[in-house]
């Protein structure tokens, strides 16, 4: 019998040593736990559609250097923090100077602060489902800590720009932890971009803990190049009457994977998860989401849209778990998918697991193509066929795009979508 492939030991040797001692110790412990870690295969249930796209050569294990120029496609209308290959670049960042809001890099923490942080990292995630979050825990070289004191409000969005520079093969491990105090508010925008043409691997983890009444919006924009494999995880834990809103916009690549896990632990907590993915060529994108209704009287709403063209592949796996004590939960999940060619493939698997009897839950999924009747109608009104295709495809995702609350993100995403349309709908 053929043995399962294992993670190369080359990936268990981090380079950066500028972290406080407790974080270095944490990293070492987690690297030790990854010895003989099996890589996912087709038999790994939550990787069955994506394992064949994972290519981790030993030369990718090298940490990419944190030097060079950085840039962003966003016209940042707020505060920003810039990371280059997983390491914060202070001179390129602009922090808010507001009472009750603390923003620090992991490398700037003292040992006491580092110990407190080490006890928090990874607690929001189910690592059996987000396996590669363990690798981030063994390899992160820096990170961003955001603490909002009770009642603190960030008056503008905080943009965190993660740039991967792949002038040579290597990897980067960005990490963020947001601790939102009671009744605090903020919007966090994550932008993932890249430059360079060598094969690279980006492995990200972002975590949120929301105290009672906290209100957090997270926007995630993935626009890395065709040479970058990206595996990311976002973990969220919510307490009483808190609200978390997520908007994920992703453009395909050789491998794109995002695990989003939300735990509603306090009564009256709410979450809203929106996602838009487009793929073309031979690109691949895989979204796995899980919402755990643990406390009673919680609400969740999830809407994801996938568009696949050419010979590309998109995956959506959404799971809602209603625990026994989560009475009077209200959960709704909807996934719609659009195939733009006969060679494209979309796999969708919505799941409901319910152990409470007084709940309102619904889920649904559809996969289809552009409606020929609608195309004919537009063409008959004088619109050329290419523009008709663009209009109908944009209409499919426009509802979700318009809900993104930051204009700069909407405009940047629209620019990339126009490029997608230009390449997908060529004039005959």
Automatic annotation (TrEMBL):
- Pfam families registered for this protein in UniProt: SUFBD_core
User: Which GO annotations describe the biological process of this protein?
Assistant: iron-sulfur cluster assembly
Transmembrane portions of the chain: none
Q: Which residues form the signal peptide?
A: none
Q: Entry's SUPFAM superfamilies? A: Stabilizer of iron transporter SufD
Q: Any idea where the SUF system FeS cluster assembly SufBD core domain is? A: 168-396
- Which NCBIfam families does this entry report, sorted A to Z? sufD (TIGR01981)
Stated name of the protein:
Fe-S cluster assembly protein SufD
The root-end lineage is:
Bacteria, Pseudomonadati, Pseudomonadota, Gammaproteobacteria, Pseudomonadales
């Amino acid at each position: 019998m053929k043995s399962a492939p294992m993670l190369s030991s080359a990936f268990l040797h981090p380079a950066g040593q500028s972290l406080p001692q407790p974080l270095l110790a944490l990293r070492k412990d987690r690297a030790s736990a990854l010895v003989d870690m099996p890589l996912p295969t087709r038999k790994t249930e939550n990787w069955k559609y994506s394992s064949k796209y994972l290519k981790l050569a030993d030369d990718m294990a090298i940490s990419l250097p944190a030097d060079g120029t950085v840039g962003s496609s966003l016209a940042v209308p707020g505060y920003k923090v810039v990371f280059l290959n997983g390491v914060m670049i202070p001179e390129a960042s602009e922090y808010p100077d507001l009472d009750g809001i603390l923003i620090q890099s992991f490398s700037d923490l003292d040992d006491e602060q580092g110990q407190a942080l080490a006890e928090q990292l990874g607690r929001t995630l189910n690592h059996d489902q987000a396996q590669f979050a363990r690798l981030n825990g063994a390899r992160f070289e820096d990170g961003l800590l955001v603490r909002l004191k009770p009642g603190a409000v960030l008056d503008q969005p905080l943009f965190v720009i993660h740039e991967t520079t792949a002038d040579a093969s290597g990897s980067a491990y960005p990490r963020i932890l947001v601790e939102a105090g009671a009744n605090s508010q903020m919007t966090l925008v994550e932008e993932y971009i890249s430059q360079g043409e060598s094969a690279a691997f980006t492995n990200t983890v972002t975590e949120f803990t929301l105290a009672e009444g906290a209100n957090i919006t997270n926007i995630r924009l993935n626009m890395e190049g065709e040479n970058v494999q990206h595996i990311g995880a976002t973990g969220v834990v919510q307490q009483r009457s808190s609200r978390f809103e997520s908007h994920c916009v992703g453009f395909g690549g050789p491998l794109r994977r995002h695990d989003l896990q939300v735990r509603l632990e306090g009564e009256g907590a709410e979450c809203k998860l929106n996602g838009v993915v487009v793929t073309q060529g031979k690109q691949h994108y895989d979204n796995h989401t899980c919402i755990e209704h643990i406390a009673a009287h919680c609400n969740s709403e999830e809407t994801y849209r996938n568009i696949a063209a050419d010979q590309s592949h998109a995956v959506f796996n959404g799971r809602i778990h209603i625990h026994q004590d989560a009475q009077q939960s209200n959960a709704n999940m909807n996934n719609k998918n659009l195939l733009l060619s006969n060679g494209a493939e979309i796999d969708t698997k919505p799941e409901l697991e319910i152990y409470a009897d007084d709940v309102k839950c619904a889920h649904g999924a559809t996969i289809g193509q552009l409606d020929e009747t609608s195309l004919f109608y537009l063409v008959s009104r004088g619109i050329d066929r290419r523009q008709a295709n663009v209009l109908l495809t944009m209409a499919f995702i426009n509802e979700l795009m318009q809900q993104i609350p930051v204009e700069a993100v909407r405009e940047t995403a629209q620019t990339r979508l126009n490029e997608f349309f230009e390449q997908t709908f060529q004039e005959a």
